[in-house]
Amino acid sequence: MTALLAQPFKLPCGVTLPNRLCKAAMTEGLADPLLRATPRHATLYRRWSEGGAGLLITGNVMIDRRVLERPGNVAIDGNGGLDELRAWARAGTVAGNQLWMQISHAGRQSPRYVVSHPMGPSDVQLDLLGGYGRPRALTEDEILDFIQRFARVAVTARETGFTGVQIHSAHGYLLSSFLSPVTNRRTDAWGGSIQNRSRFLVEAVRATRKAVGADFPIAIKLNSDDFRKGGFTHEDCLQVVQILNGEGVDLLEISGGTYEQPRLLGFEGRAEDATPRRESTRLREAYFLEYAEAIRKVARMPLMVTGGFRTAAGMELALQGGAVDVIGLGRPLCTHPDVPKQLLSGAMQEAPAYEKQLVMARSGLLSPTSPVLLLKLINVLGGQGWYYHQLYRLADGKPPRLGLGVFGSFLRYWVAELGTAMKLRRDKIGAA
Ligand SMILES: Cc1cc2nc3c(=O)[nH]c(=O)nc-3n(C[C@H](O)[C@H](O)[C@H](O)COP(=O)(O)O)c2cc1C
Question: Which residues form the NADH:flavin oxidoreductase/NADH oxidase N-terminal domain (predicted)?
């Protein structure tokens, strides 16, 4: 049953993944006040390395200390911390797996309690109950600087023992927001046609490849669709994949959605802004598999799909169908770090799916489809907070705490995030 899942996979750069399971990127929120890795990263990643996935991808590591996705992000931006990165990389590779650093810029999706004026392609604000400031449109010099920063951070990843990088261009963060006509209203070479909207991503990949050499894995995380009216569409995605075909990408991870339409986690945002969900997607275990099937027809690089996969049979079928080469898993590994090992050995047929229980009510005002945005958000953030809390426990060497409720997790989430934000000491970091 698990024949393909357990098979190694050779990437275009020559590196071989020991099997087809990947722990997808999950922001850890474990950095110190100077945004450096800590021993908790090492504990967490040692557990995941021993858990059997052939590939581990870290959570967002930011290339710009000013604009974080969360206050507990690790950043690589003049803040030292190289020994801590080395300890993290050593622990995350103890079992001989690959460990790739996800490198990222949050763009306009940096909350007010982190930065009051974030940055984006244009000054289009993220409208989520006032939680995000109006972004400032980047100048061309800043874009060129960020392209070099992606490359520099990738070199640091390589030098400190990470075995690859993933450039985050999904979920509405900076590179992803350049791809979308809703957030990118530029009229210069970085906006307008899909060639222009994808220029930042393509240049970041080129600079990174040039800096790290031909034998170091570079992956990209890309939305199959933003699911937002007037936004980055599936047709845009297919074009971007074709543009990326010649760029030496080792693995393209397919996801979807943004903070406004959090389909990456199986949720929907405001109905009036959304494009409809396809019925065939609703019926499938993995959220983006049918998109991957279309992408496969134009892609020349290996593909990975993340989101919703839970059963060994579903994963095996997706591999056999030929649409994907690697299966990404997120939430199940927050409570059970050895899920990959168990799926591969056949000891587990279905990974846990606590997210299905993590709703305040199945229907009515308190449900995840509530017409009241605040209540819908409590469900999404409470569920997310539940998983963050489990990650903290794994990082402290403790077992998961499965009995936490959604509302309690929501409250804990805010206390932890605001507490971490208050401790940040970015002003103490030397020149960027
Ligand atoms: C706690 C948590 C943190 C996440 N952080 C990130 C992140 O830093 N970068 C990223 O690309 N995706 C992030 N994601 C999305 C996951 O990589 C993945 O796409 C999503 O969880 C769907 O996969 P799953 O259904 O197997 O959980 C996060 C998801 C969760 C639950």
Answer: 7-346
